[in-house]
User: What shape does this take?
Amino acid sequence: MNSPRHNWGNTPWAISFRSKHKALPSHADVVIIGGGFTGLTAAAMVKHLAPEKSVLLLEANEVGNGASGRTGGIVLAESAAGNLPGLGDVLNGYKKILRELNVKTDLELRGVWEIARGPRSMEGKRIHPVHRSPIEWNDSGLVRVVKKVPGGSVDPGKVVTGLARAAVKAGAAIFTRTKVLDVQPGPPLKLHVIHKGKKRTITAGQILQATNAAKLTREAIPGEPKLTFALATAPLSKKHIAELGLASRRPFYSVDLPYLWGRLLKNGRIVFGSGLVPGFDEALPIGNSEQPWSGLEKQSILRGAPLERLNNLEQRVRSLHPVLRKVRITHRWGGPILLTKDFAPIFRRHPKNKNMILLGGYSGHGVALSVYLGRWAAEALLDKRKLPKWNMH
Ligand SMILES: Cc1cc2nc3c(=O)[nH]c(=O)nc-3n(C[C@H](O)[C@H](O)[C@H](O)COP(=O)(O)OP(=O)(O)OC[C@H]3O[C@@H](n4cnc5c(N)ncnc54)[C@H](O)[C@@H]3O)c2cc1C
Assistant: This one.
């Protein structure tokens, strides 16, 4: 059987973390479900702030197998819904948390280009190209830089690896290949899990659900799970990178459609992604309302509509600029994102048990936010901080 990692293709970075635990405990003070940026940060931070608490992180596959290991790694400020009441400075907070946990990530905060073809953004705002735009590409019109916004990039493999190691070093137990099948809100909080092919029950003082696009229960993290796509080129020469207008190493994303985002990697490869394509829902139904995740997990980028999307992205990339016409595409992959109704992340307590917190749904804008809110969740689990009031409706 293909694992989701295989179905969703391969990325140009590596995650080097293997969990070493053997005996799964039957209880923990804090259980974290999901080994992406959110869950790993929360696990590391709970132990960092309260070393006496037992922390158990359960990951269905390997750490980073969801969005975090497959992301573009473009570090953005605020949230997909802009600034939110009480959010604070996400970029500065991100930098501090990585430093606090001693995670080396190749973080560069040189700013991010917003690019566009037309005079209006998707939201209908008037936009115009900057004087002497460094980028001049062809993609349904002339694509140019319209604005520089705060942000930058990281190596996603290094972030996942570094956070997982920081969590283990602080004393958290990470169990991979351990899938949570169900959570009973209790009290007491009970998790039914499958570990080494056997069903087990674990009780928890508190739970953080950080499963992102994978839902455990229908009411858990509300949003639309989707698969989105990216590819990476073979390394380009400095000359070609300069000709493309990317010598500044700034990542870019389009503010009009068709959506296009990308960034340069340290080794000269360029990653391009297309975001969600219009009509995606009809072309690629994801699960159903009872089991939304099951469909997403079974999607393969190697056939059908996802393969078409990737082929289309590759064609677009080749047409962007003469430098890219014959470039070798070395990696192609997809990854899950969870779009929420108003693009604000879901960060709240479980309606039936306040000892369970739900966090996720960054709507494709979660590289810095997941880590930033993962720390906040750790503080909330330890009763050191209140949750924000973003999901009160
Ligand atoms: C292709 C792509 C490009 C992106 N590019 C950017 C970008 O450039 N900038 C940006 O800001 N954001 C980007 N994003 C979004 C960003 O990557 C995510 O918001 C972020 O990684 C979410 O982290 P997370 O920990 O909440 O979720 P995830 O990384 O998805 O982690 C959830 C984890 O939970 C595990 N899990 C699920 N169900 C269970 C279960 N039942 N039991 C145990 N474990 C379970 C999964 O296996 C997974 O590892 C991108 C996303 C994708 C897919």
